[in-house]
Amino acid sequence: MTRDYVFFFCNGQPIRAKGLEAFQTLSTWLRKERQLTGTKVVCAEGDCGACTVLLGYPRAEKIKYEAVNSCILNVHQLDGLHVITIEGLAWGDRLHPVQQAMRDGFGSQCGYCTPGIVMALAANSLADSESTRTKLTATEALVGNLCRCTGYEAIIDSAEAAKKLSSWKLADQYPPGAIVKQLKEETKLPFGLQEADPALEQGIPRKCWRPRTLRDAIEIKRKHPEARWLAGGTDLCVQINKERIDPKELIATSEISELCGIREVGGHLIFGGNVSWKELEEWALVNWPNLKEMLDLFASPQIRNRGTIAGNLANASPVADSLPWLYVSEAEIGACDGENWRWIPIEKFYKGYKLLDLRPSELIGAIRIQKSHQSLSQRLFKVSKRKDLDISTFTAAIQWQMVEGRFQQIRLAYGGVGPTVIRLHKTEKALRGKECTKDLIEKAGKTAVAEISPISDVRSSNYYRNRLAETILKKFFYEEILLTA
Ligand SMILES: Cc1cc2nc3c(=O)[nH]c(=O)nc-3n(C[C@H](O)[C@H](O)[C@H](O)COP(=O)(O)OP(=O)(O)OC[C@H]3O[C@@H](n4cnc5c(N)ncnc54)[C@H](O)[C@@H]3O)c2cc1C
Ligand code: FES
Ligand code: FES
How many Å apart are CA 132 and CA 161, to the nearest integer? Predict the structure, then answer.
């Protein structure tokens, strides 16, 4: 049995949406169906943050709110959640401290970016402790928000000032008890949605399911082989908005419990396919500090809150930021058909540009890595035109272990230098067992260039990428070997 509508709260009000409404982006729905036009749309691809809202996830009896981009989020993805928009942030006549501080500190001029900036800072102000709310965290919270006219200093100063204003708890404004109770009750059944009655509408109606078990998910996929998997939507919804692709059938994976969480099993770390970059970031902070450095440069908080590991792997961009790390960690991809799991070494998983070893009735269920990789030294590099919120031009991961000045273990992977990320086996062989000297690194650089086949594109020339293949090894040598000797 399924429901034919989605149920969620918007600014404390219960909402049931079905048909066409459920398939709109949240930003369109807010602006057109609810006249909540404070949420702005500029880029419609997750890059500018003008459309930022808070999305609340029930956790036990509380609600955990995070900033997300409403332009790349469908209404059906809100099932069981609470959305707060800029209109719902003020409490009657009282402005939220961030709104008050932005007004007092002249943090807004034309105002077009302001609602998104306020929502991003409001999310930041929900951080657990006062001490973590430093100037730096406000700056990091705004990586996904562009302002073209005010200048960021006034905005960051306003974020600082907001901390000194009265404490404000969303839980007082929107008591979670009643909201969580009603959300749980109304979403007991999974949903199966159809855009419109095909008898009334022209064309093929869109459909969406959100199963709760792997078995149900695969059963739907077998009956609807054309259906696309939908995780966070941060890639797929951009393609829908910008490349005008129009998948008629979607199977949302977010409720499949087998795809959630990070756990240790035997000697392996298992990362569920649904693990978001935000979850991985929190885990890495304690368990894998080098990984945290890469995640700091991964997209923006809004994207990290929604985007998942499985989505990054399945999208298969040769500059996907997670891949070099997964290559040197010799990750295996868990492809699941509902009953059986196949564990495929990541190097074999990619068969060419965007070609995956994934059968039509399989999905990416998890990624596993031998725990022993966690204790090896590792450095991850991302080269892009801008430091923050930019697509990589070139990526690299180096994992090594030195014994008495010699490489006992060494693994190298580069991205952006061919149709897939590659492991540099010949370069590794040239380094393994050798004493790490400047000469050795220079020779290894030449071997690395011979192993790759970069192209020239809008982000860089093949010449530049070939130079990076050499210079990244030199950077590694100076920063990790010489400076730490
Ligand atoms: C503004 C912006 C900035 C970004 N910055 C970065 C960045 O810095 N680095 C980077 O690497 N990426 C970046 N991305 C890309 C994107 O956020 C990531 O690739 C993200 O991990 C995608 O995950 P998702 O859950 O949103 O995938 P979705 O969009 O839901 O899905 C992506 C693809 O994976 C398929 N899929 C989803 N789940 C599964 C599954 N379980 N099994 C099989 N197929 C599946 C979908 O059908 C779709 O084809 C950025 C995107 C945006 C919009
Ligand atoms: S409109 Fe730019 S991120 Fe949504
Ligand atoms: S206030 Fe005009 S774009 Fe930011």
Answer: 15
Q: Report the domain count for the chain.
A: 3
- Answer yes or no: is 222 within a domain: no
pLDDT for 44: 97
Question: Quick one: 320 and 389 in the same domain?
Answer: no
Tokens matching residue 389: 């919120």
Ligand (nearest to CA of 28): 2
Tell how far the Cα of 195 is from the centroid of ligand 1, in angstroms. 24
Task: Please give the number of the atom of ligand 1 that sits closest to the Cα of 237.
Answer: 29
- What pLDDT was estimated at residue 149? 93
Q: Which of 375, 406, 439 is the last residue of a domain?
A: 375
- The answer to whether position 210 is within a domain reads no
Asked whether 112 lines ligand 3 (CB < 6 A), one says yes
| pLDDT at residue 367, as a whole number | 98
pLDDT tens figures, 122-172: 998 886 555 555 666 888 899 999 999 998 999 999 988 888 777 788 999
- 322: closest CA among 352, 351, 288, 355? 288
Residues of the chain with pLDDT under 50: none
Residue carrying the six token digits 């400047």: 438
Give the residues across from 379 on adjacent strands. Answer: 398
Query: Do both 456 and 343 map to the same domain?
Result: no
Relative to beta strand 249-252, strand 207-209 is parallel
Which protein residue's CA is at the shortest distance from atom 41 of ligand 1? 364
On whether both 369 and 451 belong to a single domain, the answer is: no
Residue 369 shares a structural domain with residue 395: no
Question: CB 5: neighbour CB atoms within 10 A?
Answer: 16
Per-residue model confidence (pLDDT) at position 261: 97
Range of the domain at 447: 376-485
Q: Are the beta carbons of 210 and 79 closer than 8 angstroms?
A: yes
Residues 305, 300: Cα–Cα separation, whole Å: 8
pLDDT in tens, 46-100: 999 999 999 999 998 899 999 999 999 999 999 999 999 999 999 989 999 999 9
| Ligand 2 pocket member 46 (CB < 6 A) | yes
How far is the first Cα of the chain from the last one, in angstroms, to the nearest whole number? 64
Give me the pLDDT at residue 120, please: 96
Note whether 420 and 459 are same-domain residues: yes
Last residue of a domain, one of 336, 356, 375: 375
Model pLDDT, residue 164: 79
Find out whether 363 and 220 touch, Cβ atoms under 8 Å: no
Backbone φ and ψ of 255, nearest 5°:
-100, 0
pLDDT for 293: 81
